[in-house]
Every structure is written in structure tokens, then in C-alpha cells.
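Bench notes, afternoon.
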Amino acid sequence: MADGPLIVQSDKTLLLEVDHALAGEARAAIAPFAELERAPEHVHTYRVTPLALWNARAAGHDAEQVVDALVRYSRFAVPQPLLVDVVDTMARYGRLQLVKNPAHGLTLVSFDRAVLEEVLRNKKISPMLGARVDEDTVVVHPSERGRLKQMLLKVGWPAEDLAGYVDGEAHAIDLDFHDDTWELRDYQQMAADSFWAGGSGVVVLPCGAGKTMVGAAAMAKAGATTLILVTNTVAGRQWRRELIARTSLTDEEIGEYSGERKEIRPVTIATYQVITRKTKGEYKNLEIFDSRDWGLIIYDEVHLLPAPVFRLTADLQSRRRLGLTATLVREDGREGDVFSLIGPKRYDAPWKDIEAQGWIAPAECIEVRVTLTEAERMAYAVAEPEERYKLCSTAHTKVAVVRSILDEHPDASTLVIGAYIDQLDELGEVLGAPVIKGSTRTKEREQLFDDFRQGRIRTLVVSKVANFSIDLPEASVAVQVSGTFGSRQEEAQRLGRLLRPKHDGSQAYFYSVVARDTVDADYAAHRQRFLAEQGYAYRITDADDLLGPTIG
């Protein structure tokens, strides 16, 4: 194509010209095998990685389709080495297969004997394997199904898992559309269908796009007992409310497995925290995974899956598994583990696409740069390196700035978000607003969140306990004063608190108050990268100009 929308480069980056007439077509064609890295205004950058190519193979795409898409939409000749590499990389997937053998149970079958010999000699892989059935087949210990996939991915020979799933204990679950008062959105239906067609995998949708509904649709398809893993008790109770409102499930059919309750029911909602709690050096609560014959396991916010649950997930490979997330960015770099243990990415919708359809609110991101006082600058300069971030991100100068921002939006439902409790307590006092932190009891938390939803409270000061899975649809302003260093996923989740569509169609404002000339500014730049990649540009303003006409 002489004038295609795509520029394919030899470093495996793809540049997509957004304003081109064929940009939408090209994006759909490359989405299965290329990861979106940056999505600013005019040119989006994708990268072709081995994991992305294996994801595509796992989802049923072959090298011919990938090559065809690149050649068809590229403005210039596609570098020949890149095409060769695509074909060779994709050919590595599936030379080893995990299959159920009627006589020997779970086996690893090879279509390339040299590859089998190579992995048999790997010191970490060989203990997971049993007797050799024939030259191309070796028995796999059933409990090692997940760990084996993990290790094979790491050595560059990802196995195709064809061993199937157990159906688990049947339990009827139907979506309840209340006389047509709601329906699944097209992308929610497509996400659920894509997951079910593959059996296991991850669905990536923006915060506020209704990931819970995708989970409910998957549960209805499974018609089986379901274990739902969530980040905290408040998120779990939110799931419970949604399931009771949107499905045939009753209160009695849904159990809560948390620090407060230990109920095992046909649908059980458990927190990552309680599952990974150690008693006398042992994970006693992991027995929940064996407490029922689960037909489906849902991992909410799968990008936060703690390592111990990863290890246990390795033993759950015979269960269908659905991971839900707004971003597959893991700060520990374990995206490959998500692929091998939960499954490949089955569906991904760009944030701006969902916003354009009106399902999430438009948002303006503003970085407010604050100049520290001489005393604060000196304290920062002489502090130990590990103390500096806390010092600059909790600088007292920020308090007046936060108050000014709230004055700019007097009628807005506002969240003030931070990481340091002393700072949050001070802000709560100055603003006359309640503070929600880790020590706040669940009952009090739920009451405050409910008061905020109903408009009885206009401003809430919250710690990172509110980063994830908390549905506050009316929040239209967020002011971030401090965070977990340079965490991109936290930045995405905090903006996500604002993206539920507003009843009056208004837009959201996401402020970051940042101390100039400090590591606070350095971390802010790193945190913002993910949102810039999703198409959210930050406007920078000086704290001294806040009361001017530029904002609001």
C-alpha cells in the first residue's frame, strides 16, 4: 500500500498515523499481535514482542495473517528480517503441546524431537516431568501443569495447552435484564465471548467500562460454581451487589471469604489479602481453592495478583480462569506469568475508543507544579536519599494548593488521594473532610463511600485503599498529592476512579500536585507514561496561577 497508515520499523515498532482514513482498519488488524506502547494525539506506537506473537498464536492467529496485516497497511516496504523473525517466533509456539492421554494422563507431546530433548535436559524443567512414553511423549505431573508452562515460556518454547478443563460443579447463573432496563454493551459481550472461546485468559478494559459485567456474563456461560478473587473487602461487596442486581443469584448463594467472614457458597468472593495471609509460616487459607469443585475462577485486577497466588494458580490449570484488568502493566515485570498461568489476552479495548462511544467520561489531566519554600528545599537537600521522596511529596506547601483546586470546583464530588497517612490526616482536618485509610473499619468505609455516592459528602480524603475496584460513579475531580513512587498502574487506577460516565455528561479532572525540582517530579513523569500511552495528555500549570482563569 503506497500510502498506508502504518510505518513498520526494523526495531519491531509499528507507528500508526491516527488521522489516516484506514487507521481503524489497520489498528484492528495489528491489535492481536502488537502491544500498544504509546497513544498520544497523532501517531500511536505499537511493539511486536515474542509474548505478543505467542498471544496471537494462542488466540488462533497464524504467521501468515500477521505478515499479511503488516504488508497490507505499511506505507513503506516492511523490513525483511522482521518478517522472518515473526514467522520463526510464532513457529516456536505449539511445537510442544500439553494433552490428556487416555492411558497416561497429562502428557507433553513434541512435534520437534530436538526441542523435547532440549527441555528434558533443563535442570528446572526435568523434575516436573515423569516417565518417557515414547520418543515424542513424556508424562507430566498434573500438579506441575502451570509451573511447566511458566518455565517453557521462559526458555522460549511456549506450550500449547490442549489438556482442557473440568466443568466443575454445575450451578445455574443467568443474567437478569429486569424488563430490558439494561443490557450487555457490545464490547462486554465480545469480551465474554472471546474469553469463553479460548477457555481461559485475560480481558483488558478501562476502569469504569464494566469489567464486573464481563465477569457476570462469563459466569452465566459457565453455569458453574465460581470463585472470585478481589483486592479488598469493599471491592468484594461491590461485586456482590452487582451480581445480585444483574444476575439470578440471591444473597444466600454468594459467600464472602475475608478477614471478617469465612463463608464458602456456590459463588464465593475472597480477598487476595486473606488468601496470602500466613499463619505460623503457612498459607492456611489456600484451602479455599480445594473447598469446592470450582468451574470458574475470576481474578479481579489480575495485574495485582500476589506472587503466592501465582504459585497456587499453577495448580489450578484444569479450571477455567478469567483475569480482569485495566492494564497488564505489572511493576514486577511478570506479564509472562499472567500469560502462562491465567491465559493469553483474549480482549483489549483502548481507553479512548470506549470514551468515544460514551461509556466512560472524558478526562482532563493537569499537573500542578509547586515550588517548595526555602526551608522545605533545604530539608530536602540534606535528607538521606531514601527519605527524600516522602519529604517532597508530603511538603506542607501542597496543602494550600489542594484547597485552591477544591475552590475551583466548589460543587464537584472530589477525591483527595495520597500515600502518607500523616499528610492525609492533615488534609482531612484542613478541608473538613473524612479520611479513609487502611485502619478504617470496613463498615465505616462502606458508609463513607455510600455517603459520597449519595452526595451527602462532597469531599473524601483517601489512601491507596481506594485505588482499586471501588465504584464511585459521581466522583468528577481527583487531586493526587502523593503516590507509590513511579507506579504507572497506580496512576491508571486513580484516574479510573473518575471515568464512570457522569449523569450530566460532564468531564472529569485529574490533578497531580507535584513538587518542582525534586524526585516527586521525576516519579510523576514515570507515573504519567501509561496514561500518555492511552491518549491522556497532561497539561502543566504553576501552582501560583491556580486561581487564574486557565482551569475549571
